Each structure stands twice: as structure tokens, then as C-alpha cells.
Amino acid sequence: MATNGTKKHVATYTDAQPTQISSILSGGYHHPLLRQWQNERQLTKSSLIYPLFITDNEDEETPIDSLPGQKRWGVKKVVPYVESLVAKGLKAVILFGVPLAEDAKDPYATSADDPNGPVILTIKALRVACPDLFIMTDVCMCEYTSHGHCGILREDGTIIREESVRRLAAIAVNYAKAGAHCVAPSDMVDGRILAIKQGLLDAGLAHKCMLMSYSAKFSGNLYGPFRDAAGSAPSFGDRKCYQLPPGGRGLARRAIARDIEEGADGIMVKPSTFYLDIISDAKELARDLPICTYQVSGEFAMLHAAAEKGVVDLKTIAYEAAYGCLRAGATLIITYFTPDFLDWLDEQ
Ligand SMILES: NCc1[nH]cc(CCC(=O)O)c1CC(=O)O
Ligand SMILES: [Zn+2]
Ligand SMILES: [Zn+2]
């Protein structure tokens, strides 16, 4: 209520206005179903993509200390595990290769698309075991390079763009040939979307392989547990020359616009809850494309740590984070919470 500065106004019951009809919002959300109806976008099992770490030791099943509940899997062990999740409604996975063999890493990431390597073997095995499962592959070199960077390097440690982009396209095409339904380059080397799209076209696979670009991938402090899990921390330097600076909203917008131009079929924002404005930008710039966000290892580990401390309730906070992403404009979420959500969504 406005005051004129001199006379102090004290409200009394006689001032009470009849309640405005438009002020009563609670009638619209007093029931659990109504609360669901308020969601512009729903979290469903189809919204979830589960990341899996696959090693070159086919019988491996090793818990990852920094990622509660997550494991490194060998191809023989991962197939029955994924089958059990498909039975609960899992629709999509994204595969990361974790080569452990002594000689697995070199400057060209040769093992990334080794026909007997973990990613290609797992694509083929899952295509057979789970014919309805959507199989995505992360495309990057850092898990397979001796130096742990995401491209091919010059002597001075900088990325050779043309050579890296050709190599990334070859890796992506080999994943598509093995049966991947989607390739998702996370390297952030300029021009790779065009090169991969051209590669898929040349191989006659562009019509049956989606190209999901990690367009807006930020360099921050949230990938630590993943780099532990995948053994992909750079041996020197960092990724700041190719991943975006956390304040770089303009760069993210330019990268998204460029990747649409270059032929991306979907746009990803990574990490997720620290970058909701970027998700909303992606939805605006790529309004006709599916928008995906990656709730990364550090976000997942933080929520778990907070829950263990009793600061938050895990399930409640997991939903709250997911709805933040959906509200901002994402319809797809890559999350380590996927197995939990498959159970939680059934409880409703
Ligand atoms: N380029 C590799 C890659 N692909 C996905 C992630 C991060 C996923 C996560 O933290 O959960 C990373 C790590 C990185 O860029 O260092
Ligand atoms: Zn990488
Ligand atoms: Zn990657």
C-alpha cells in the first residue's frame, strides 16, 4: 500500500478488501494430479538418458568411488544390467569407453573406434539384446589419447583443428556403422558438426544416425568424478581453449547457432543446473530441435554428498533439479539418476 511519506498508514480489519478472485492460485494445485498439470514439460521415462562407462575388460563390474551407485562395466556384464533397466522402462543410454589396457592410448585416439574396443562391441551387443533401446555414443578423444586432450595436438599442446575434426568424424562414422542411433560429439573442436554430418552422408548413414551436438559445454569444476571414472584427465594443461568459459553466454549462443547451421539434429547444454539460462537460450535458438542437458558427474556427486550430510533429501532434490532443466527448456536429461528415476516414476 502506498504511503505519502508523511502520514503513516496502519492497516486494520476495516481496510480489508474482499479477496480478489484472481489472487487465489491454490485451487489450481491442491491435488497431486493438479501439481502435475502445472508442469509445462513432464519428466517421463522417455526424457532420461543413462550414461554408462564401458571398459575393455569384458568381465569388469567395478564400483566408481566418486559416483555413488555407478560402475565401470565390461561388455559381458553391462548387457544383463541394461536388460534389467529396459525391463523397468529404460529408453536410452549414452556410452563412454574406458580403455584400461597398457597400450590402449596414443596421440590419435586409435582405440576409440577399435572394432574390438569396448564402445563398438557394446553397441553391437546392445542392439541384439535390447532391440528397442536407443543407443547414443559420446564422441571424443580424451578417453583414448595418451595426453588426455580431446583432439590431436601440435608440439606446443594446441589442437590441430582440421586433423582432429577428420579423426572425430571417422570415429563417429564407425560408431554409426556399428549401429549407434546417435553420435554426440563432446570435444568442442570447431567445425566437427559439419565434418561428422558430411561423414555420415558419405557413409550413407545420415538418415539413420542422429547427430546430437554438445554445443554448449562449459569448462568448470564439475567433471572431476567423470575424469576419475574414465581416466581422462589431461596429463598437462586444461580444456579451457576448447570448452567454454563459465561466463560465456554469448559464446554458447554462437556455438548453438553455428551447430544448427552445420547440421546438428539436437543440441546439448552441459553441465545442467548451473546453466539454466543457457538451456533457455538453446530452447529459443533451437526451438525446432530436441534440447538435451547433461547433469554431469560433479552435480550428481554434490547432490549425493549433500543428501548424506542430511542437508537435502535425495529423491526430492533429484526431482527439483530435473524440473529446473525441464522448465528452462530441456526435454532430455542425461543423468546418473536414471535407474533411480525408473523406480521413482513407478511409485507415483
Ligand atoms: N570430453 C569427455 C567428456 N564427455 C562427457 C564428460 C563429462 C561428463 C560428466 O562429468 O559426467 C566429459 C569430461 C570432460 O570433458 O572432461
Ligand atoms: Zn574430451
Ligand atoms: Zn567426451
Automatic annotation (TrEMBL):
Organism superkingdom: Eukaryota
InterPro entries: ALAD (IPR001731), ALAD_AS (IPR030656), Aldolase_TIM (IPR013785)
Classification via SUPFAM superfamilies: Aldolase
Keyword Ribonucleoprotein among UniProt keywords: no
Main function: Catalyzes an early step in the biosynthesis of tetrapyrroles. Binds two molecules of 5-aminolevulinate per subunit, each at a distinct site, and catalyzes their condensation to form porphobilinogen.
NCBIfam families: PRK09283.1
Protein name: Delta-aminolevulinic acid dehydratase
